[in-house]
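REVIEWER CHECKLIST
Item 1: Sequence provided? yes
Item 2: Single chain? yes
Item 3: Sequence as submitted:
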Amino acid sequence: MNGGFTGARGGRVRLRIGSEEAAVVRLLMGQLLDLLGEGDQPESGSGADAGMPDLQLSENTAVSDDPVLARLFPDAYREDQNASAEFRRYTEAGLREGKRAAAKTVLATLGEGGEVVLDPDEAQAWLRALNDLRLALGVRLDITEETLDQMRTFDWDDPRNAGYAAYDWLTYLQESLVRALW
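Item 4: Structure as written out by the authors:
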């Protein structure tokens, strides 16, 4: 396992990562991008014609049936479905695009392994993408506080071990990045 992220000059951060670890990050980020889907096309007349910034409005106004997407894009107002739908209409496309952009930054800066040096903006993108990836994996693995305690007692042959090990390692990476940034 690598030593995690460390601080570097000029607000940069450094990560030494093995080729196998880089392959895992690349695979998981690719799966996250697949889950997030392609970019939505903005609705016509969303403001660009009137000299206003182009606002991407989402046709989707409901929480996804996919539990991972529901976790990544939760309801803003659980008690008021109309307000939540309207909020989602104005925010989800931009949030989704931000998540895609962060994952693409990870893939663009990762390389095949070795040393990765990130500028402050790239480091923030990594932080967001690692968080999204951990949320997604945590939902798929149904990770709870109890599960984390149980992980220590799993038999080595337990088929869940690989997923839990990936989740644990991503947690370590995210924590080391936070420490390196602050």
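Item 5: Key structural point noted by reviewer: The two ends are 22 Å apart (CA to CA).
Item 6: Recommendation: ____
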